[in-house]
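Worked example 3 (structure in, sequence out).
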């Protein structure tokens, strides 16, 4: 029987099921926290759902940055893998391009910054969730579905509790390609006796406007910056946890029971809590039709000092005592310094206002592929290049990696910091198509240009560690002005499940100088030769 959401009662019940300990810097642990999700009545139709507007104001407010520990190389590192000129162009064909949620989509007026832009492509639709609002587009035409955008918490209409009454954002959109279902999630963080929650809706069909099964997973601390990866045995989710909403408590990694959620049945989560030495983990997210080898754990990564941290999360739904979280294995990479020392330094034309780099963490997604039995992970973060003898000189670049050998000994197969000129590139998202061709989408700006959206690509056979010439998605015509440094928070590059070739990218730009006037763009492209 499904339970109506009653926060005080179910926080106690859900968290009291089993709390068997925590894992910090241990190499391996079987100590796992187990709790029940609160489930509510199924939503018969997202299109017909109305949002509960309690707690939603018309104020324009910047979301605070909650930094994780900046683990950075000592001194001023010389980036030995800087790509200072474009490699051989991997020719691509431009597909659809249209404005997403933001200024330019009807009469939409942003209330919060940054937009937290996320979106994914499904069988026939593109779903975008930007901070507090969700939209569904026809992927063949870019046409907006009637009745959208609508508040994100419309997904939880009639559910009860904070998931219905809060619309707190930090969303993630995923398309479960193996099941042809949408997985949509945001946090609800009223705090106090109402607690902290991750609200998850799984579609009953491949139609994003239709019916959903809904779940709310409880936490005792603020579950900031949630990121989700789809895996055969679970939906894996990572957080940066903050006690009292402000004091960093370490990263948390959780597994949600995917098979139960796809069936609309009561579900549980299993979580491991790390120490304050670790933050910014990303879970592997499966692309393509070839699954990982049977029984594979989910792979997770984060950024450490001059290395990447590699972790394995193996969940056992029959006996949680057998679940394990292993890591970090440290993967050596070329020395780097974080762009802006992890803070704010990105210039824009026509203003002295700088933008934040969010370079203290890896950027979403940690995209996984199994091609011919060879497992691959691709991921990126923002680094400082062309430095002088001090930090924050030079410019920022997107450092991307391909990692292989996860089942045995993981190694960095190739890496590069893409900086074909002295503009600042950051806020990236990387993925591979079914042939192993790679694309990275990102923001780009400089003191003489407004922030733009662009991407670079490579063929699988290209020289290791190189990307081709930059392709412009859209040149912004506005800069973000004084006292607003928050930008993007993340972008999202996804792969079309139908052809497994077409990349779909979404990110932030501005049409005019100002604050709280951001726009977003959705753009698709395909690397030639992938059919």
């Amino acid at each position: 029987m499904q339970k109506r959401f009653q926060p005080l009662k179910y926080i106690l019940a859900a968290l009291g099921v089993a709390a068997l300990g925590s894992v910090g810097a241990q190499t391996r642990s079987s100590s796992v926290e187990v709790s029940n999700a609160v489930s509510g009545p199924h939503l018969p139709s997202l299109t017909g759902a109305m949002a509960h507007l309690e707690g939603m104001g018309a104020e324009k407010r910047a979301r605070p940055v909650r930094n994780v520990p900046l683990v950075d190389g000592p001194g001023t590192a010389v980036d030995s893998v800087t790509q200072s000129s474009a490699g051989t162009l991997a020719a691509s064909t431009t597909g659809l391009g249209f404005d997403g949620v933001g200024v330019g989509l009807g009469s939409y007026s942003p209330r919060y910054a940054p937009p937290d832009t996320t979106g994914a492509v499904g069988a026939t639709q593109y779903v975008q969730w930007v901070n507090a609002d969700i939209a569904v587009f026809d992927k063949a035409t870019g046409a907006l579905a009637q009745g959208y955008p609508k508040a994100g918490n419309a997904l939880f209409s009639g559910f009860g509790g904070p998931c219905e009454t809060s619309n707190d954002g930090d969303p993630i959109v995923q398309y479960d390609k193996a099941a042809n279902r949408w997985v949509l999630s945001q946090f609800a963080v009223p705090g106090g006796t109402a607690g902290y929650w991750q609200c998850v809706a799984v579609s009953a069909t491949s139609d994003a406007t239709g019916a959903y099964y809904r779940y709310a997973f409880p936490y005792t601390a603020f579950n900031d910056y949630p990121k989700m990866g789809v895996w055969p045995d679970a939906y894996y989710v990572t957080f940066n946890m903050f006690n009292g909403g402000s004091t960093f408590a370490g990263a948390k990694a959780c597994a949600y029971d995917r098979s139960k959620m796809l069936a609309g049945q009561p579900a549980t989560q299993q979580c491991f809590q790390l120490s304050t030495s670790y933050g910014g983990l990303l879970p592997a997210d499966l692309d393509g039709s070839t699954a990982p080898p049977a029984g594979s754990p989910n792979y997770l990564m984060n950024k450490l000092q001059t290395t990447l941290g590699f972790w394995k999360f193996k969940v056992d739904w029959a006996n949680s005592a057998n679940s394990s979280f292993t890591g970090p294995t440290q993967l050596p990479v070329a020395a780097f310094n974080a762009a802006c020392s992890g803070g704010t330094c990105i210039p824009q034309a026509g203003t002295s206002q700088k933008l934040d780099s969010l370079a203290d963490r890896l950027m979403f997604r940690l995209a996984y592929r199994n091609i011919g039995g060879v497992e691959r992970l691709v991921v990126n973060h923002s680094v400082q290049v062309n430095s002088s003898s001090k930090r924050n000189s030079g410019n920022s670049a997107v450092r991307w990696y391909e990692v292989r050998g996860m089942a045995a000994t993981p190694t960095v197969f190739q890496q590069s910091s893409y900086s074909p000129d002295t503009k600042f590139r950051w806020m990236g998202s990387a993925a591979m198509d079914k042939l192993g061709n790679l694309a990275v989408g990102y923001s780009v700006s400089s003191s003489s240009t407004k922030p733009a959206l662009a991407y670079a690509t490579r063929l699988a056979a290209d020289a290791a560690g190189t990307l081709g010439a930059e392709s412009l998605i859209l040149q912004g015509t506005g800069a973000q002005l004084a006292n607003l440094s928050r930008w993007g928070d993340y972008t999202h590059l996804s792969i079309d499940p139908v052809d497994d070739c077409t990349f779909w990218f979404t990110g932030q730009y501005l049409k005019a100088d100002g604050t709280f006037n951001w726009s977003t763009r959705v753009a698709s492209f395909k690397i030639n030769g992938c059919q």
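Notes: The chain has three helices and 37 strands. The chain has a mean pLDDT of 92.
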